[in-house]
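Researcher: Please predict.
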Amino acid sequence: MKNMMKRLATYRNGLGLVLGILMAFILSAGAVAQPELGRPWITAASAGTVDEEDVNKVEFNGGFASLKKPDGLYPIYPVWPIFVTQSAVIRYNVVPVDGVTLGNTYRLTTRFRDDGANAQVLVRLAEFNLHTGRRTTRMELNSDNYSPSAGMQLQTVEARCTNWELDFVNNAYFVEVTLTRTNFIGNPGIGIIKLESELCLF
């Protein structure tokens, strides 16, 4: 009887050890894989390519991109009879990370600065077709749709349950940012852009 009890105790201990090792392996594997699941596409604004016509209009400061201050003296009074609207285009290549291929609900999040009626930040997700060369705007965030702020703000637009999905086999994708000022005091800028997706469940 004593021998049988010893065998049972040894069996239980061995089984417990095996289960413990198996559970540790499962948890460690999950911990390693989890960060890769649903990873979004994200970029600092300073990583973009400025349109060749606008290279002298944009300045980078750390990860931030903004329009350079216009040359010349600022008028004394808030009347700008000779000011010409300034704008610049910056483009960012979107690559097929798993977080943008999960489903047909998409979120475009941008950290930007729009300090009033004299500034605008326009962020568009564009699709460029391999076979036709056609460009299609899939999403758009317009800073004029939000309250102005002298500091940075974070805003998101969502395209839910779309009848299209990002197709990296037949299309290239990029985010196009247009910074615009309509007089000397406008100060638009952009810091971060993020794109992510999820399954449409309803």
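Model: The chain has one helix and eleven strands.
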